[in-house]
Design a protein that fits this description.
This protein has 2 domains: 113 residues, no CATH class; 177 residues, Vaccinia Virus protein VP39 (Rossmann fold, 3-Layer(aba) Sandwich). Helix content is 35%, strand content 26%. It is built from 9 helices and 13 strands. The strands form 3 sheets. Strands 1, 2, 3, 4, 5, 6, 12 and 13 form an 8-stranded mixed β-sheet that branches. A 3-stranded antiparallel β-sheet has the order 7-8-11. A two-stranded antiparallel ribbon has the order 9-10. The chain binds S-adenosylmethionine. The site of S-adenosylmethionine has 19 residues, from helix 2 and strand 2.
Length: 310
């Protein structure tokens, strides 16, 4: 996990540039993780229910296809470890490594899962998945299935997504497989509604980043001084989330003063959307081939099963 000074440095790097930005991983403390769970149940947020329905349909057909000896699932950004339960119901999983940056939330969720599945060796890893991580040696002999649901791959720029996948190929090892949920390109109205819900939960989630930074790096963002915005950029194929400063203001981050003009934006998240062939190309570039692809009837969401070419 990054030290406090690394975190402060990273935050200042994003705020001291012409177009201010903060990394989406800072949404997630205990409160942010709980707000995200609420988002997944919102009527406008089609992503989670569509993805879960796809797993329910496809997982029975994966029995026998995932022919890995001693199956260990490694999940990147496991959150509340909800979707792994679907895999545990269908595949002979012997070990599970959920990785997440929101440590307290992960540890509570993983402990609950251990009680439900005492036969599975569960090792919760509090880490930043954009950095290389080592799995415990006891899993060396296991065949690895990577799991990255929730279209979190869309939070990376395309080149970063490729680097991330190359990194997972190293972490998971020769012959690994990877199950990954990816949101598809679609009408602007559907996308913008999903990221601007009518009950304001996504707005609270976006603003929580500032609360989280105030609590951890001692900044003094006034949450009433910023407003949530989310727009679909069609050219980029990306929903972009921002916080807009509602007035001229100064924010202190340690002994550094950051000036915000009225209407100035902080870019907080990209959610890139992928046509299936676009994502297949990206996975190929990262050393994976597409073994299978599933989409729902309306083609809102895609699930890829990848096989490492290494
Ligand atoms: C969009 S949520 C998805 C949660 C869950 N996988 C799902 O599909 O519902 C992203 C999750 O990834 C975690 N996360 C975000 N950035 C991370 C990073 N750089 N390293 C590790 N975990 C991260 C967050 O804490 C959160 O639990």
């Amino acid at each position: 996990m990054p030290s406090l000074s690394e975190k402060k440095e990273e935050v200042l790097k994003g705020l001291l540039t012409q177009e201010k930005s903060l990394l989406p991983k800072y949404f997630y403390d205990e409160r942010g993780s709980k707000l995200f769970d609420q988002i997944t149940n919102l009527p406008e947020y089609y992503l989670t229910r569509t993805e879960i329905q796809l797993y329910q349909e496809l997982l029975p057909s994966l029995v026998g296809t995932i022919d890995l000896n001693k199956l260990c699932v490694v999940e990147f950004g496991a959150g509340s470890v909800r979707k792994i339960r679907l895999i545990l119901e269908h595949l002979p999983v012997e070990a599970y490594v959920p990785i997440d940056i929101s440590s307290d939330h992960l540890n509570i969720a993983a402990a609950e899962l251990s009680r439900e599945y005492p036969q599975v060796d569960i090792f919760a890893l509090s880490a930043d998945y954009t950095k290389p991580s080592e799995l415990p040696e006891r899993f060396d002999e296991f065949g690895k299935l990577g799991f990255f649901p929730g279209s979190s791959i869309g939070n990376f720029e395309k080149k970063e997504a490729e680097s991330f996948l190359i990194g997972t190929n190293k972490t998971l090892g020769t012959g690994c497989r990877f199950l990954i949920g990816v949101d598809a390109k679609k009408d602007r109205e559907i996308l913008e509604a999903a990221y601007n819900d009518s009950s304001g939960i996504t707005a609270a989630f976006n603003l929580n980043m500032l609360r989280h930074l105030n609590a951890t790096i001692g900044s003094d963002f006034d949450l009433s001084g910023f407003q949530h915005e989310a727009h679909y950029n069609v050219e980029l194929g990306c929903v972009q989330m921002h916080l807009r400063s509602v007035r001229d203001q100064i924010v202190n981050v340690g002994d550094q003063e950051i000036a915000f003009a009225k209407q100035e934006l902080i870019h907080t998240e990209n959610s890139f959307k992928y046509a299936p062939e676009e994502f297949a190309q990206l996975a190929n570039n990262a050393g994976y081939e597409v073994e299978n692809l599933w989409q729902d009837e309306k083609k809102l969401f895609s699930i890829f099963l990848l096989r490492s070419l290494n």
